[in-house]
Inverse folding.
């Protein structure tokens, strides 16, 4: 699947993330952020665009209703960050720690999650469209009542993930792994799984398989 990639200028001036407080509307754009610590802050309804953020930490920061467009996060710690009701487009998360992040009720489009820790992340009631998740750990991730449209899970760990009230029609889980999954039979209609996963799911739903 092809998605729209972040549109970021090749040359970016370096800035501090705390410069966001200098703008009345919490806007930060067209810059490079390096080695920043921005923990326990509250900047809801902020705007980030056309920027790269590397080796930075944002633990427990509240970014509710943030607008993120054309941004790359690389080697960042975003543990327990609140992205509730966020709008995230043409964005990439690479080698980041997003444990416990809250993406509930967000709109996420043309986004790549590559090799991240996404354990205990909450996507509940979110809409994900044209999203590629590759080699992520999504243990105990919550996709309750989500809309998944053109979403790819490539070689992810989905153990104990929750897809309750979420249709998996058109979703391919065959390269990913799980021991247990919360999902309804109706939601699996049109979902692609491996033969081993089919047996796992059947067992989880109480089907007795004999030789």
């Amino acid at each position: 699947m092809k998605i729209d990639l972040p549109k970021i200028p090749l040359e970016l001036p370096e800035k501090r993330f705390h410069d966001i407080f200098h703008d009345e509307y919490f806007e930060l754009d067209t810059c490079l952020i390096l080695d920043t610590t921005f923990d326990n802050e509250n900047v809801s309804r902020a705007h980030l665009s056309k920027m790269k953020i590397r080796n930075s930490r944002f633990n427990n920061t509240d970014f509710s209703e943030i607008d993120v467009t054309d941004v790359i996060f690389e080697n960042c710690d975003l543990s327990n960050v609140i992205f509730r009701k966020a709008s995230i487009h043409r964005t990439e998360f690479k080698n980041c720690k997003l444990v416990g992040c809250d993406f509930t009720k967000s709109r996420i489009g043309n986004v790549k999650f590559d090799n991240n820790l996404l354990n205990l992340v909450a996507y509940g009631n979110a809409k994900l469209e044209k999203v590629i998740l590759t080699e992520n750990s999504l243990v105990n991730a919550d996709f309750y009542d989500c809309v998944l449209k053109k979403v790819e899970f490539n070689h992810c760990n989905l153990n104990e993930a929750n897809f309750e009230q979420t249709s998996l029609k058109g979703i391919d889980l065959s390269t990913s792994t799980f021991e247990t999954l919360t999902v309804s039979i109706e939601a699996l209609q049109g979902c692609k799984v491996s033969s081993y996963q089919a047996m796992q799911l059947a067992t989880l739903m109480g089907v007795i398989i004999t030789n």
Q: What stands out?
A: The domain at 14-204 is CATH 2.160.20.80 (Pectate Lyase C-like). The mean pLDDT is 94. The first strand starts at residue 14 and ends at 15.
